[in-house]
Amino acid sequence: MLKYLLLVAFAAVVVIAQRGHDPCHDCDFIIRQAEHHFHNNITDKTALKQELLVECQWLGRREGQQAAAHCTDVVNKQIDKIFADLQAGDRIWQTCEDIGECQPHTGGTRPIPASTPQAPRQMKQRH
């Protein structure tokens, strides 16, 4: 039984490692979390940045250190644009395209990322 559990755990690690890193997926997560905090009374850019950096740590626990590092880098470098787009009411995909994390989409409806991790409820409600 222990061998089976170890094999399953190893297989899960391999699958996660092979999945690769998707900057557009990370951006979708960042902007969704930014919208959540912005619409729940975090309307100061500095406070929003701090909340997003905490979300990046959570993303790292779920998606791996590469995702966490990328998330942190995007938040640190792009907080001005993220905050301005939130104030302007821009859509998630527009912000992600504007900051170069997603490729511009041509024609039809915009694709929705396959799986956008959601932060645990206790993290979302800790204002």
UniProtKB/TrEMBL annotation:
The keyword Signal applies. The keyword Disulfide bond applies. Residues 102-127 are annotated as: Disordered. Coiled coil: none annotated. Residues 20-106 form the Saposin B-type domain. Keywords: Disulfide bond, Signal. It comes from the Eukaryota. Residues 1-17 form the signal peptide. This is Saposin B-type domain-containing protein. It comes from Mesorhabditis spiculigera.
